Task: inverse folding
């Protein structure tokens, strides 16, 4: 079963979606063999290099009041805790451009360590530590932490390598109708949207696997 996980490293619901999906797949490991690919999606493609205050940004983008934002942040924090992930809301004060992170993730897919470890470490860097996922210093350090070649990673980041590929991939998923993330696409035919609970993913994946086997 091929799974394309369309997401952004600055999306908290993408963390929840991935952690939930991982729990579901652990329960299905004897039934389903999975080939996972992480696909790029930028929530804020026009964001400048210095980012923006997160409260200000969400208020501008969604019209959310401070009270609404506080409730949402607490719900996200609790969902993460239930899945074993720490959202430190006091650490994450800004939102940043994520394009270079997507370029590095694209490169990581060609390396033995793969994308998944880098993706999860980038989630931790931003949501747990409050670091800038667009910072080359942060990206290089995280790459090294997951066993990727830092010199090769630096060459990617200091050039325009994979920029066209990432933009083409983003455009592909937008044309496919993806307007929000996480979007979990199964075998390029079935879509599961949002940070669903593990049992929802498990039920959906089992149903899809059964239908595919009968097709």
Result:
């Amino acid at each position: 079963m091929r799974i394309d996980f369309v997401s952004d490293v600055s999306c908290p619901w993408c963390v929840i979606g991935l952690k939930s999906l991982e729990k579901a797949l652990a329960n299905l490991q004897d039934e389903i063999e999975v080939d996972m690919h992480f696909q790029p999606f930028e929530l804020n493609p026009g964001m400048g290099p210095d980012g923006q205050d997160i409260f200000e940004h969400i208020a501008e983008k969604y019209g959310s009041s401070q009270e609404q934002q506080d409730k949402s942040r607490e719900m996200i924090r609790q969902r993460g805790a239930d899945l074993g992930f720490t959202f430190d809301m006091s650490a994450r004060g800004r939102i940043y451009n994520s394009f270079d992170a997507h370029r590095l993730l694209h490169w990581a897919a060609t390396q033995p360590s793969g994308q998944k470890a880098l993706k999860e470490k980038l989630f931790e860097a931003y949501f747990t530590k409050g670091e800038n996922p667009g910072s080359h210093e942060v990206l290089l350090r995280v790459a090294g932490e997951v066993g990727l070649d830092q010199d090769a990673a630096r060459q990617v980041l200091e050039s325009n390598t994979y920029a066209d590929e990432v933009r083409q991939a983003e455009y592909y998923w937008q044309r496919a109708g993806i307007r929000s993330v996480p979007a979990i696409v199964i075998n390029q035919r079935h879509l599961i949207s949002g940070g669903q609970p593990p049992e929802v993913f498990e039920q959906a994946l089992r149903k899809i696997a059964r239908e595919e086997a009968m097709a």
